[in-house]
Amino acid sequence: MGQLLIPVLVGVTSVAAYLVGARGLGLSHGCILKAVRRMLECLGITLIFVGVNLGAVVIVILAARALTREFVSLYLAADGTLLVLSLIQALIFQGWQDLSGRVSLAHEAEGHPRIG
Asked: How far apart are CA 79 and CA 113, in angstroms?
């Protein structure tokens, strides 16, 4: 039961958000797939930032080991904050892309031309 609690709660709140959006706010039913594509694009950008940030942390740790001759643990790179900050970077990058008028890869896949 405990293992299903979080997925079930997330499912229930997702259905509730869909109903509020569709019925209460008048959001288009057809746009939900576009929103999912957009979310997946943001997830991909997040993973890119995670990889780059993780690589940078490892390089800095290894450089600190070499320059100070003291042991600096690579476990410092396993901080969960890195994932949250990478998500924030991805959201900012995606918003910047939108506000700059550049068509995202998700829009391009739908047949919209790339701007700029």
From this structure: 40
